[in-house]
Specification:
8-stranded parallel β-barrel, TIM Barrel, 283 residues
């Protein structure tokens, strides 16, 4: 069954590892993630962005996640990724999401606090965990784009005040990652991460982790990162699987023979991430 995101956050914080959070858009992606989680004996976040909900429909997303979680022997949470409106959060909670992220980072500090508090007031009584974002992570996530000029790193003192006033369960921070494909190698601000970790006593979340060097991930996890988001690398693996089939057999038209290899490519990416994040064997 689906579990609250808070359960996964707390276990990760206590255990000193990060749980992988993988974006889903269709059945094959859900299957790839859960097969990987089962084989690696890892807890996992399935998460749907606004774009995924628009593409697949919230009923399909929830049905796929619930079916997968009911069959699984590992803990699974279903998370709204980068929710930008109170109405959308309510819709997700009503449909069975067990975790939500409210992204108020585009608003001034006080407005971000206000919208986060409003979400927590309705989410916590339902047993749903809440993740917020402070600082602006560059790049594009579906229809949300933050330019390089707009991107801003998270201020440790603001983080402390934000957490104290909102009582949020987890905080996504900006320390040098970006959504989408990196043009060069990302440089994470580990000194800032350590200051934030010392300023707040809650799990921290790293967005835009596709393409971040493995050494940087290994360094970030002991400094308080408890959830790591992966989307772009799954998309790339999916495309690679389909392209290989078409390249080898241009006349292939059976969707099962196109999507099966794509599912396997994604599964291998997820398994590697789970081992890297330290969540393998933690279910």
């Amino acid at each position: 069954m689906l579990v609250s995101g808070k359960e996964l956050f707390q276990a990760a914080k206590q255990g000193g590892y990060a749980v992988g959070a993988f974006n889903v858009n269709n059945m094959e992606i859900v299957q790839a993630i859960l097969e990987a989680a089962e084989e690696e004996k890892s807890p996992v976040f399935l998460q749907a962005s606004q774009g995924a909900i628009k593409y697949a429909g919230i009923e399909y997303i929830v049905a796929l996640a619930r079916t997968a979680a009911e069959k699984a022997k590992v803990p699974v949470a279903l998370n709204l990724d980068h929710g930008t409106s109170f109405t959308q959060v309510v819709q997700c909670i009503r449909h069975g999401f067990t975790a939500v992220m409210i992204d108020g980072s585009k608003y001034p500090f006080e407005e971000n606090i206000a919208i986060t508090q409003k979400v927590i007031e309705i989410a916590h009584p339902c047993g749903v965990s809440v993740e917020a974002e402070l600082g602006k992570i560059g790049g594009t996530e579906d229809d949300i784009t933050v330019s390089d000029a707009e991107a801003a790193f998270t201020d440790p003192q603001e983080a402390a005040e934000f957490v104290e006033r909102t009582k949020v369960d987890a905080l996504a921070i900006a320390i040098g990652t970006a959504h989408g494909v990196y043009k060069g190698e990302p440089k994470l601000d580990f000194a800032r991460l350590e200051k934030i970790r010392n300023a707040v006593d809650i799990p921290l979340v790293l967005h835009g982790a596709s393409g971040v060097p493995e050494d940087a991930i290994r360094k970030a996890v002991p400094l308080g990162i408890c959830k790591i988001n992966i989307d772009t690398e799954l998309r790339q693996a999916f495309t690679k699987g389909v392209q290989q089939v078409v390249l080898n057999n241009p006349k292939e038209y059976d969707p099962r023979k196109l999507l099966g290899p794509a599912r396997e490519e994604m599964k291998q990416v997820v398994k590697a991430k789970m081992r890297l994040f330290g969540c393998a064997g933690r279910a």
